[in-house]
Amino acid sequence: xxxxxxxxxxxxxxxxxxxxxxxxxxxxxxxxxxxxxxxxxxxxxxxxxxxxxxxxxxxxxxxxxxxxxxxxxxxxxxxxxxxxxxxxxxxxxxxxxxxxxxxxxxxxxxxxxxxxxxxxxxxxxxxxxxxxxxxxxxxxxxxxxxxxxxxxxxxxxxxxxxxxxxxxxxxxxxxxxxxxxxxxxxxxxxxxxxxxxxxxxxxxxxxxxxxxxxxxxxxxxxxxxxxxxxxxxxxxxxxxxxxxxxxxxxxxxxxxxxxxxxxxxxxxxxxxxxxxxxxxxxxxxxxxxxxxxxxxxxxxxxxxxxxxxxxxxxxxxxxxxxxxxxxxxxxxxxxxx
Length: 337
Prior knowledge:
Blueprint: E1 15-17, H1 26-35, E2 41-47, H2 48-54, H3 56-60, E3 69-74, H4 78-90, E4 95-100, H5 105-109, H6 120-131, E5 138-146, H7 152-164, E6 169-177, H8 184-187, H9 195-204, E7 209-213, H10 219-226, E8 231-234, H11 236-240, H12 248-252, H13 262-280, H14 284-288, H15 301-308, H16 318-329
Parallel strand pairs: 1-8, 2-3, 3-4, 4-5, 5-6, 6-7, 7-8
């Protein structure tokens, strides 16, 4: 069993929020940073083609408060990944992460994501190409296997090969990726979780940073996993119930307790909506969708969510929408949410 570390001296990857396509955009990350100052945040996956041909600002713009912040790249061409890693480092990202875990059909058609686990030598070439051109850590997020390959040797050899190319941090989703017959959602639920394989990676590679991902939903589970690995990454649970993050700095990361209230977070997000509308023409609805779990369990939360989700209100300023939503939390016609 790995000894519990002093949070002040622990790995920078001790706690993180997973990269989630269509979810962890800059607006989502701004919200999360109001709740936790020290948890590591990740972008959505950005493909090399999208970054090289779709404009840097569109894909890479972020707020300075989001640090520590990692850029996740999707691709399989070492030269393109090196170019994108260099761009990401120039923009100030604290880490470049290579996606070797996404099982979606769109990713498979691009010959990257989880299918790359079948080609560890190629992944090693990709990692080396990026390591050679940036000073920030280059990391890999992957599964424990693909399809029906359930041997521990498969993931052990993958990690060993990629580590030799200069990767020192592996974020391991503790499920196989079934590349045929399952949707991405089913791939997050049907292949069984096998945490012991992730623990074994840490035992076999004590010099590497091993971060566990997959199926973690409570602080108790986080603490249990941290007895065996260097870090834990949460995804959808953190997104849907973001308030859980307010205790992480103090409980796991050696920081001060977060005394902010849900109403103060909402007010800060409304101010952010106003800035984004002026600076980038972003409608408040593109931002509000990320905070619908903010008042989870509070009386009036259901009606509050309905207001912020009502697209008929889009022409109104965010301040007026907020006032209408807050009226439900104040008890005007409120029911349990």
